[in-house]
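Minutes, structural biology subgroup

Action item carried over from last meeting: produce the C-alpha cell record for ABC transporter ATP-binding protein (Azotobacter bryophylli). EB confirmed the sequence was re-checked against the source entry. Recorded below for completeness.
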Amino acid sequence: MPTSFLEIVELPDGRIALRRADDEEELVILDFSESAKEFLQGYHIEVAKAMLNVGVQMAGRLASGDFDDEELPRVLH
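Output recorded by EB:
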C-alpha cells in the first residue's frame, strides 16, 4: 500500500471508517451495535480510534518485517 495520510471518519450512517485522506474508499469499517454504543456511554468513537490506531501500527510492523511469528496471536476470542 502506498504511503499516504490516513483519516478516521464517522460515516453518515454512524459507522466509523479508516480511509486515505485523498480517497473516499473505506479501507476498514467499524460498526458498533446500539447495545455496544450504550455500554460505551457514547465513547465508541474513541474506542474505534484506539482500535484503528493499533491495527495500523500492527500492519506497519508486519509490512516492515519487524514482527516475530512467535508474537502472532494464535487464538481469537
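Discussion: The longest strand covers residues 6-10.
Next step: EB to file the record with the rest of the batch.
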